[in-house]
Design goal:
59 residues, mainly alpha
Length: 59
């Protein structure tokens, strides 16, 4: 359930950023900076923890 809530929150944030770009409030550099920090940071953390879980189970 928590994963579903997190996904919905992430999607809502991406839609908000996309709307701001379409409205012209945000430059491309600012957009890429936010995307890099927020989204890639979250996905990298998840991927690393996922790999660790697999390693623990395999060993």
């Amino acid at each position: 359930m928590n994963g579903v809530i997190f996904y919905a929150e992430e999607r809502r944030r991406l839609l908000w950023i996309w709307m701001k770009i379409r409205e012209g409030y945000m430059g491309i550099a600012d957009f890429m900076g936010r995307m890099g920090v927020e989204v890639w940071g979250n996905w990298c953390k998840r991927f690393i923890s996922f790999v660790r879980c697999i390693k623990i189970r395999v060993s």
